[in-house]
Amino acid sequence: HVVDFAAVVRDLQENTRSDYWQVLLKVLMYGAANRVAPAVDGEAVITGEAVGQASSQTLTNLWALHPWSELPVLRPLVAAEKQEIIDEARHIGTAPLSERIREYCAITPSKPVTRATHERVAREMAKLDPALLDAETVAEEYAVSRAAQDEYALCSHRRAAEATDDGRFDD
Question: Of 12, 69, 95, 161, which has the most beta carbons under 10 Å away?
């Protein structure tokens, strides 16, 4: 599965602290993986994270990410060097997929946070549109554009308001 994060990254960049972008992006990727997992009988999220591979991949940051996945997060490459990770991706056949997907992991324009906390991550996550990732998934899987989803939601809201005003929801 490939999930387009373009709209999610825009939301992240417009609404949260830039030093937290990479940590928040990982949280969102964990969320996407948790949504995709049932479709592939997935029982865990497996990442290519490695301590120190990127300045945001500190033990403290990885711990701050811990509560954001309902599934266990496995990091088989946690102690690997970058070239080892690339070689392993080629070996298991995931390199071509990684090479054609847009790189979002280097989105932070300044120094990323290295000592994130659960609380701060939660505060920053609260600033994001929680439906955005689901909306992008619906757009991709069912060929329903985000604009069409928004139009339908607005229409549905208006109908519900009308029904409420007319007393159709009264017991």
Answer: 12
The Cα 132–Cα 79 span in angstroms is 33
Q: Distance between CA atoms of 29 and 47, rounded to whole angstroms? A: 10
- Measured in residues, the chain has a length of 171
With vertex at residue 18, the alpha carbon angle to CA 117 and CA 111, rounded to the nearest 5 degrees, is 80
Q: Would you say residue 1 has pLDDT above 70?
A: no
Q: Which pTM does this prediction carry? A: 0.72
- Confidence bin at 82 (pLDDT 50/70/90): confident
Please give the average per-residue pLDDT across 7-20, as a whole number: 91
Amino acid in the structure at residue 99: E
d(CA 22, CA 5): 13
The sign of the torsion formed by the CA atoms of 76, 80, 113, 60 equals positive
Q: At what angle do helices 118-125 and 21-36 cross, to 10 degrees?
A: 80
The amino acid at 91: H
Contact 51, 58 (CB under 8 A): yes
Question: What ranges make up the beta strands (E) of the chain?
Answer: 45-46, 73-74
Q: In one letter, which amino acid is 20?
A: Y
DSSP states along 43-62: -SEE----TTTSTT--HHHH
